[in-house]
Amino acid sequence: MFNYFKQTLANVAGTQEPEYGPSAIQPVGQRDGDPAFTEVKKEHLKWMTISSASVETQTFYFQTDAGHLGFVQVIYSNVVGLRVTCQFNCKIFYPNNEKPTLWSSDPVDNYGFDENQYCFYADGVSVELSEDGTFYTIKSATNENSLVNLKVTKAAPGFMGGKDGTSNYGTDPKNPWGWMRHAFWPRCKVEGSIITKDGEINCKGRGFYSFALQGMKPHHAAARWNFVNFQSPTYSASIMEFTTPPSYGSTAVRAGGIAVDDKLLLAGTSGMEVKHTQAQQDAETDWPEPTGISCHWEGKTADGKDVSARLSGPLHPRLDRVDVMAEVPGFVKTLVASAVGTKPYIYQFSQKMTIEVKIGEEVKHEEGWLFLEASFVC
C-alpha cells in the first residue's frame, strides 16, 4: 500500500519512484510467445492519443544527397492528463558545418486527426499517410525559416519488436501502469524541400521514420537512451536502446534491425547492443559524453542464414548538445521541474563510418553515414 501511494505521488508530481525491480517491466519481445519482430502495416500507424500522461511522436530523419542531415517531427504531449500540447520541430545540420545548425520548434494550435487517426493536422501543419500506407507527406508553414514540403516513402518493410512493439511497466503484467512503444520504417526514400531564409534545401536522399509512444513520465520510463541510424547505398542499420531507472532494475531494452531495399536482413529485440567505448566527462552537465562507439547486430535472415554486422570507431566532436528542458513547453517544464534527479540532455553526432556485414560466409564492407543520439535523463 505504501508503494501505491508513492506511485500515485510520482505519477502526479514527477517525484522519484520506489524500486520495484526488473520484474516490474516486461520488455518488448521478451514475453512468452512473442515473435522476434512484427512487420509494420498501415493499421499499426494510428495515433493513439491516450488520455493519461504520455508523449507521442512521429519523427522523419533524412540524409540528403547533398550532405544535409536533419529531421522533422510532430510531438503530441498529454501532460499528466491535464493538458495537451502539440509541437512541430525541424532541425538541419549543414554539410561540413558550412552554416549554423537550423533549429525551429513551434507550438501548433487547432490540432486534430482524420477519422481513422492516421493523419495529423494543425494550423499550418499536415502529416498525412497515403491511402496505401506506403508514404507520408509532411508540410509545415509554422516557421518562416523552415517551410517544409517532404515526401517520405517506405523503401523496405517496416518493423516493430515483438508482437506489438510495446514494453509494459507495472508489477501486474495484465494491468500495466505505463508502456513504451516503437514502430520503424528503417529505410526510406526522401523527396521534397525545406525553404529557409538562406534558400531552398533539396532533401532528396535517404530517410528513417520512427513512431513512438511513451505512456508514462519520461524520467520514469528511461534513464538513458541510444539511437543509432546508419544509412549507406546498400544497408540501413538501426538500434533504439534505452535503460530503465533503478526503479525497474536498470533494465536494457532494445529494438533494431538491418534493411536493404525491399527486405529486412534481420530485425528483433535481442542480439544487438550499443556501447560507448570511450567517454569524457562533460564539465557543464556532468554527463559522460561518448567519444567512441561500438554497435553490433546478430540474427538470421528469413531463409535461415546467419547474419551479423558491426559498426565501431571514435566519434567526431558532437554536432549538438540539446538541453531538453530548454526546449519543452513552459507548462510541461513547470510540472517536470519537481522531478528528482532529472537533467535530460541529448548528444548528437554524425560522421562517415564503415559497416561490416556478414551473411553466411560472405563479408562485405560499405561506407555510409552514421547519426547517433546519446541521451541522459536521470
From TrEMBL:
Origin: domain of life: Eukaryota
BP GO terms, sorted: response to oxidative stress
Subcellular location: Cytoplasm
Family annotation (SUPFAM superfamilies): AttH-like (SSF159245)
Keywords in alphabetical order: Cytoplasm
Svf1-like C-terminal domain residues: 216-377
Entry keyword Cytoplasm: yes
InterPro entries in alphabetical order: Ceramide-binding_SVF1 (IPR051385), Svf1-like_C (IPR033394), Svf1-like_N (IPR013931)
Any Pfam family the entry gives: Svf1
GO CC annotation, single: cytoplasm
Svf1-like N-terminal domain location: 55-214
Keyword Cytoplasm: yes
Main location as per UniProt: cytoplasm
Family note: Belongs to the SVF1 family.
Name this protein carries in UniProt: Survival factor 1
